[in-house]
Specification:
Radius of gyration: 21 Å
Largest sheet: 5 strands, antiparallel
Oligomer: single chain
Distance between the termini: 29 Å
Shape: globular
Number of strands: 30
Number of helices: 0
Helix content: under 10%
Strand content: 35-45%
C-alpha cells in the first residue's frame, strides 16, 4: 500500500554528507567522487576513505567481494504524471494507479480525488484501458486494493485484498493455471515475504499486540510460529528468505530465526530499517549514527545473512527513506536525503557484483516504495509534484 509522505518538517538537521562506499577489489581506487545535483543520471561513485579524515578503507569479507561485471547505465526514462506503481505485470508492463483531482481543498473540506488503474506499456509508452477504483479507507467499504507478491521461482503469487484500511483477506494464486487457493484468517498488517519457493511468511498483526506469525504453504495450509522475544511490540519491519525470518524489535535490534527456533539471534544493533536480498544472502541496514550537535545521521551498510559486516558505508545523510533489492539480488536501489546539498541527495543504485554505486535520480525523494521489474532492468521512482500529486519516473538500464 501507499507509503506515507514525509514532510520537510520531519527531516532531520544537517548531517555529515560524504560517505565511504562499497569498493571494487582493484587497487588504487580509494578516492571518492561525489556526484553533485547536476551530474546526471549516469554519474557514479568509486570507493573512498572516510569523509571525517579517519582514512576508512573498504574491508572485503572473504567470499563477499565483487566479481568481474559490466557497469550499468540509464538508457531511457519514462515519465508517468499523476501515477504510482501498483505492481509489474511483466518486464515491459506495469500496473499503475492514477490520481486525478476532482475538487480542491477548502477551509472546511478536504480535496477530492478520483483513482484509476491501468496497465502501462513501456515499449510503446502508452497506457491501457483505465478502470475507476476506490481506495480502502477507515470508514468506507466496497473498494478493494490488491497487493501481489510473486514467489522466488515465479510459479505462485501471494495476494492480499484490502477491503478497508485495516483488514485484508489472503490467497495463493498459481500463475500457470490461474488456480486460486483462499487462505483462512485475516491480517491487519501488510508485512510478509516468501520464506522459500513454496512457503509465504506473514506477520498478520493485531489491534492489540504483535499478532501471529504465520507460515502459509502454497496449498493453503497455515501454521503459526512460536517466538519467544519480550522485546517485540509489533512487526513494523519484517522480512524472510533463505529459510529464515528477520525483524526489528522495539530496541532497534535486527534479529533472525528459523522455523523451529523459539529464540532469535541478534544480528545488528541500532537499526532503523532493513531490506533482505531475495536470495537471502545480504541485508541492507539503515542505522542511526552519532552526529555533531546532537544530530544522528542515517547510515546505510551491508551485512551478510549472519550479521557479518560487508564493506564500509554505502550511504549517509539525514534520511535514508527507501531501500529495494532487484529480484535477482544483483542491484540495490536506495534513496538518501541530506540538508547539506553538497552531500548525497537522490536515488542511487549499487551493483553488487562489481561494487559500483551510481546516482540514478538526482535530488529525488521517493514518497512511495522503489519498485523493480521482474528482471531488474527497470526501476520505478515515485515522487510528488508541486500539487502533491504522484509522479513516477521509470528508468531503463542497459
Amino acid at each position: 500500500m501507499k507509503k506515507g509522505k514525509a514532510s520537510n518538517a520531519c527531516k532531520l538537521a544537517v548531517a555529515a554528507a560524504l560517505v565511504g562506499l562499497l569498493a571494487a577489489c582493484q587497487g588504487g581506487a580509494d578516492r571518492l567522487t561525489v556526484p553533485g545535483a547536476g551530474a546526471g543520471a549516469n554519474a557514479s561513485q568509486t570507493p573512498s576513505g572516510d569523509s571525517g579524515g579517519n582514512g576508512r578503507k573498504l574491508t572485503i569479507v572473504p567470499g563477499s567481494g565483487p566479481t568481474a561485471g559490466r557497469e550499468t547505465a540509464v538508457k531511457r526514462i519514462h515519465r508517468l504524471a499523476g501515477a504510482s506503481v501498483e505492481s509489474w505485470t511483466s518486464d515491459d508492463a506495469v500496473r499503475i494507479l492514477t490520481t486525478k483531482p476532482v475538487r480542491p481543498a477548502t477551509a472546511t473540506e478536504e480535496a477530492k480525488f478520483e483513482y484509476e488503474t491501468s496497465t502501462y506499456d513501456l515499449v510503446r509508452d502508452v497506457p491501457g484501458k483505465a478502470t475507476k477504483v476506490r481506495l480502502p479507507s477507515e470508514t468506507e467499504s466496497g473498494g478493494a486494493f490488491v497487493r501481489e507478491e510473486p514467489s522466488p521461482d515465479g510459479r505462485y503469487v501471494f495476494r492480499q485484498t484490502w477491503r478497508d484500511k485495516y483488514k485484508a483477506s489472503n490467497a495463493v494464486v498459481e500463475r500457470a493455471t490461474g488456480r486460486v487457493v483462499e487462505v483462512p484468517g485475516d491480517n491487519y498488517l501488510e508485512k510478509g515475504a516468501w520464506l522459500d519457493d513454496g512457503t509465504y511468511a506473514l506477520a498478520a498483526g493485531s489491534m492489540t499486540g504483535p499478532g501471529d506469525l504465520r507460515l502459509i504453504a502454497v496449498i493453503g495450509k497455515v501454521a503459526t510460529l512460536e517466538l519467544n522475544d519480550p522485546d517485540v511490540e509489533s512487526f513494523s519491519a519484517f522480512g524472510a528468505g533463505g529459510g529464515r525470518l528477520y525483524y526489528l524489535d522495539k530496541l532497534g535490534k535486527l534479529k533472525s530465526f528459523a522455523p523451529g527456533e523459539d529464540k532469535p539471534r541478534t544480528l545488528v544493533s541500532g537499526a532503523d530499517a532493513f531490506a533482505l536480498s531475495p536470495d537471502g544472502a545480504r541485508i541492507a541496514v539503515t542505522e542511526t549514527g552519532t552526529g555533531a550537535a546532537g544530530s544522528a545521521p542515517a547510515e546505510l551498510r551491508l551485512y551478510g545473512a549472519d550479521g557479518t559486516a560487508q564493506g564500509a558505508l554505502l550511504g549517509k545523510g539525514d534520511l535514508v527513506p527507501a531501500l529495494a533489492w532487484s529480484p535477482d539480488s544483483a542491484k540495490l536501489a536506495f534513496a538518501v536525503y541530506a540538508e547539506d546539498k553538497g552531500g548525497m541527495n537522490g536515488v542511487y543504485m549499487l551493483q553488487a557484483d562489481i561494487g559500483k554505486i551510481s546516482l540514478v535520480a538526482p535530488n529525488a525523494f521517493p514518497e512511495y516504495p522503489l519498485s523493480w521489474n521482474p528482471s531488474g532492468s527497470r526501476l520505478a521512482v515515485t515522487t510528488s509534484d508541486r500539487h502533491s500529486l504522484p509522479v513516477t519516473q521509470i528508468y531503463d538500464f542497459d
